[in-house]
Inverse folding.
């Protein structure tokens, strides 16, 4: 945790510097007769961000903030495993949307999560992972919000489905 | 004038219909909900028009799949132009545009948008601009206004929707032509501008009639000058042309298709919007919102884009953009 | 007295069978749309606009107003049960609603939200009926300097909101404000802070991307991590008796917050540039300040749910005021309603109140009726929402992830935003691990887009002279109060840290 605290602060400091640098492409000063320029607001607020990371670093050095005193690891074995399985699952879910459509991706994600992470019965898993996309599809029809349909091979399925709801 | 236009419309609509019949074997019908992108956020003038068009199509059941409005107003319309250029389904993606269709690619060349790659669909109308002041200012004529502005010596406050936007182009032209300076306060929409004119936070605006109409009818706003070719029915004020400057400026209310749209799909949408154009509802809407009809066929639209791009290039250059 | 008879006619109109049916359907539909994370009243109203062609305009707007009301009630539901603010107006509701739900008191939180919403809506309706034309001129007297002063006041009421770590709280606020500036500079009309030159940033970072990322993804992963996947909330009880006991508890502990929210929300809501979100945030801050036990706020105090919920309903009615009296939309939702009125052939503007008496008073009458039905329908559905919470966590968690993604997409319709939402979610998880408070960043991204333009508009008006904020009769006092509120905790902090 102690190492993690200063690394996090350093990353945020880099972010602040990057935002300051980006802001300089517009006027960051006070224009006479007009007030602040376009870069004024983000530049000086990023500057305060940078100062805050400095303050965090001081607290870290003096050991006054709880994370800088703790010897715990940032994430233990359970934490990393959880992050890979849950976080990775969500990332894969989003990555699949443009390929097999929103509904296909929801279905696979729910099967993965309920069956392999949740260890629920196949009945519960399939009921939810097939039922939910159907509910959402009618929601789409009623609300007139088009969800991503994926790559072209899903087209015949969606053409049929749209025939049903419209 | 109107009659000839209407005849032209009927003729072109008939021609399109005929072409549709000939090509009936592979005529296009939308198979998916149509992505109806709007180049502005919810609630503005462009959004109201888009939702009106959608409502007419819906009410008359004119499409086999619904038009799904999709507001993409970010970055002064850049968001919408990018969305259209990168769509993977150009046959089901159309856009309701305003003049940022011309100005945004000019002002942000790094977007790499070439509007001539877009597919012309329909020019529904053009929206004129009018100069408004608050009634408590006591100003009733343009000459009086000019005097006041010049006397204020740069302290006269006008509001608008931002540098490079339609109204700022008109204001820049005026200040150049008549040699005055104003303070220009940018707002995020025509409604906010009208509100601050009503509250006299600002002293004058250049706004579409539709956005100022309620206050005009209540007598709070006084129109001084129109930037149209002819006097606007219902708002009887002189035009810029009558004041000796050959200048008119309109906001286009047009529908365009995504780049790469197939010819069949383009023909379908051209016919659809020609049909909407001819409905009683749209004709009535144009009249009540003081829009001017300016129907064009697809080739004329392309030519119009070209002249508009050239015009805007010159106008923006004159503004120092 | 004339007003009362007009209002009476309006209510009779809205109690006609067709209108009453539309109100009940509208409120129910709105409730569920509002409960979806991502979708709020603006989506509900915009999407259902064309459906209203089937009925006369008077009934159509009643239907849309009922959806609007229902959605405002519904926003609290995802804030409490899922911990995700479904709309910016419901951010403050998560501060105490979520802790209550985790303590097994989701029922109490939902009842508090429903009752406070009802009171807020009713107070707003009465103020609206009595003072509409007068208040319209008040709304117009708020120019950019006044709105900026108000935003500063909203921040000031929130100074104490972050965690105990001062630099981390400041960092969080500034990060939110800078993120709010990404996209487009309204004054110069130039793109600004296009991070890594990715076009997706041109439209800026929507509040929802950050809020759903932080609460729907980050906070959920954090919950799984910190509980080792075995969540041990006490199961909430569902029974009529329990709801009745909850109502009584809300009456005892939430009345102050409700009262503050009802009035403050309404007055902030009628200002077209401000609206319901700052109203609900300020009400939360003020309720915390005047409470005898401010320490309990943020840990599950019913007053912390009542204040923002009363305020956001009150403000939504307030936002109708500039729309009906001036034809100026006070919020995106009223902007769409206004568009609807144009479609129906009405001219919004100052003449509407005079020329379309029946339409206007029918609508106002329907506010009262919608409000009663929204309360009843909401209370009736509370057991359903609590039942959802009793699902095993390994079912609830993936459902929340799916709702976050599908709701986020429905509102934003861009895969880029969904990826950004994931990045914020993972970032939030790690920042959470190191005790960075993130609520201030979410608030800042809501208030930033109002605060920065009004600051710069004001300074353009005054040619760069900052005294404009202090010399105007309305903004001056607001500025002074805001600055005092900001300086108070600072002085306290400096005194504490003085070497003895």
């Amino acid at each position: 945790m102690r190492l993690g605290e200063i690394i996090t602060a350093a990353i945020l400091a880099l972010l602040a510097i990057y935002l300051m640098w980006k802001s300089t492409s517009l006027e960051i000063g006070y224009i006479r007769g007009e007030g602040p320029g376009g870069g004024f607001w983000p530049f000086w607020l990023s500057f305060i961000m940078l100062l805050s990371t400095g303050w965090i670093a001081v607290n870290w050095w003096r050991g006054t903030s709880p994370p800088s005193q703790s010897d715990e690891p940032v994430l233990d074995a359970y934490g990393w495993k959880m992050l890979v399985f849950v976080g990775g699952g969500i990332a894969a879910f989003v990555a699949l949307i443009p390929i097999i459509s929103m509904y296909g991706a929801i279905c696979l994600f729910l099967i993965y999560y309920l069956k392999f992470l949740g260890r629920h019965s196949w009945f519960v898993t399939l009921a939810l992972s097939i039922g939910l996309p159907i509910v959402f599809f009618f929601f789409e029809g009623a609300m007139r919000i088009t969800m991503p349909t994926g790559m072209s091979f899903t087209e015949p399925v969606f053409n049929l489905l749209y025939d049903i709801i419209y | 004038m109107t009659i000839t236009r209407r005849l032209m419309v009927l003729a072109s609509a008939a021609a399109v219909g005929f072409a549709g019949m000939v090509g009936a074997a592979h005529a296009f019908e939308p198979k998916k909900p149509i992505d109806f992108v709007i180049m502005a956020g919810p609630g503005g003038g462009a959004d109201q028009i888009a939702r009106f068009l959608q409502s007419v199509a819906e009410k008359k059941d004119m499409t086999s799949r619904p038009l799904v409005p999709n507001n993409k107003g970010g970055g002064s319309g850049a968001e919408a132009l990018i969305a259209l250029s990168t769509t993977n389904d150009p046959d089901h993606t159309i856009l309701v545009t305003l003049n940022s269709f011309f100005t945004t690619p000019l002002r942000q060349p790094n977007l790499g948008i070439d509007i001539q790659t877009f597919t012309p669909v329909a020019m529904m109308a053009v929206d004129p601009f009018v100069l408004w002041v608050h009634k408590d200012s006591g100003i009733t004529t343009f000459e009086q206004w000019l005097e006041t502005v010049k006397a204020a010596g740069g302290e006269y406050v006008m509001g608008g929707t931002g540098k490079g936007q339609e109204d700022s182009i008109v204001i820049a032209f005026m200040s150049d032509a008549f040699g005055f300076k104003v303070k220009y306060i940018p707002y995020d929409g025509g409604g906010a501008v009208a509100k601050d004119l009503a509250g006299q936070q600002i002293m004058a605006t250049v706004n579409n009639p539709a956005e100022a109409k309620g206050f005009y009818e209540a007598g709070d706003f006084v129109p001084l000058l129109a930037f149209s070719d002819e006097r606007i029915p219902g708002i009887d004020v002189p035009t810029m042309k009558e004041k000796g400057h050959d200048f008119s400026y309109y906001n286009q209310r047009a529908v365009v298709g995504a780049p790469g749209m197939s010819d069949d799909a383009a023909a379908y949408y051209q016919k659809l919007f020609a049909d909407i154009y001819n409905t009683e509802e749209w004709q009535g809407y144009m009249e009540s919102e003081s829009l001017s009809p300016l129907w064009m066929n697809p080739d004329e639209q392309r030519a119009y884009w070209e002249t508009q791009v050239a015009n805007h290039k010159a106008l923006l250059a004159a503004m120092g953009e | 007295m004339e007003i009362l008879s007009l209002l009476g006619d309006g209510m009779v109109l809205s109690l006609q069978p067709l209108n009453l049916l539309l109100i009940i359907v509208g409120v129910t539909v709105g409730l569920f749309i509002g409960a979806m994370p991502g979708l709020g009243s603006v989506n509900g109203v915009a999407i259902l606009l064309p459906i209203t062609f089937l009925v006369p305009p008077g009934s159509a707007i009643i239907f849309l107003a009922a959806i609007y009301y229902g959605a405002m009630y519904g926003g609290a539901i995802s804030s409490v049960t899922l911990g995700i603010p479904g709309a910016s107006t419901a951010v403050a509701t998560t501060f105490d609603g979520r802790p209550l739900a985790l303590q097994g008191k989701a029922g109490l939180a939902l009842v508090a939200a429903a009752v406070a919403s009802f009171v807020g809506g009713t107070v707003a309706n009465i103020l609206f009926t009595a003072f509409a034309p007068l208040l319209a001129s008040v709304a117009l007297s708020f120019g950019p300097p006044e709105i900026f002063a108000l935003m500063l006041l909203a921040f000031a009421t929130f100074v104490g909101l972050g965690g105990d770590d001062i630099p981390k709280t400041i960092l969080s606020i500034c990060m939110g404000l800078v993120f709010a500036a990404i996209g487009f500079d309204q004054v110069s009309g130039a793109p600004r802070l296009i991070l890594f030159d990715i076009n997706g940033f041109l439209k800026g970072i929507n509040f929802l991307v950050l809020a759903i990322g932080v609460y729907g993804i980050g906070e959920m992963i954090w919950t799984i991590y910190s509980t080792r996947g075995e969540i041990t909330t006490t199961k909430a009880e569902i029974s009529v008796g329990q709801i009745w006991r909850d109502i009584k508890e809300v009456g005892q502990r939430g009345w102050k917050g409700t009262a503050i929210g009802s009035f403050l929300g309404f007055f902030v809501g009628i200002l077209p540039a401000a609206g319901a979100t700052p109203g609900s945030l300020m009400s939360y801050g003020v309720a915390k300040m005047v409470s005898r036990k401010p320490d309990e706020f943020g840990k599950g105090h019913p007053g912390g749910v009542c204040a923002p919920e009363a305020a956001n309903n009150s403000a939504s009615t307030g936002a109708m005021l500039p729309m009906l009296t001036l034809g100026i939309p006070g919020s995106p939702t009223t902007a769409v309603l206004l568009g609807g009125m144009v479609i129906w052939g009405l001219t919004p503007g100052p003449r509407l109140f005079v020329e379309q008496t029946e339409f206007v008073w029918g609508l106002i009458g329907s506010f009262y009726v919608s409000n009663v039905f929204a309360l009843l329908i909401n209370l009736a559905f509370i057991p359903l929402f609590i039942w959802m919470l009793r699902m095993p966590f390994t079912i609830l968690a993936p459902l929340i992830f799916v709702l976050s993604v599908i709701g986020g997409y429905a509102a934003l319709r861009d895969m880029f935003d969904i990826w950004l939402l994931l990045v914020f979610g993972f970032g939030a998880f790690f920042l959470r691990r190191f005790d960075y408070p993130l609520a201030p960043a979410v608030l800042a991204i809501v208030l930033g887009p109002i605060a920065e333009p009004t600051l710069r508009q004001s300074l353009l008006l005054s040619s760069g002279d900052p005294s404009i904020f202090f010399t105007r009769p309305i903004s001056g006092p607001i500025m002074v109060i805001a600055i005092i509120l900001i300086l108070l905790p600072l002085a306290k902090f400096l005194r504490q840290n003085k070497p003895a």
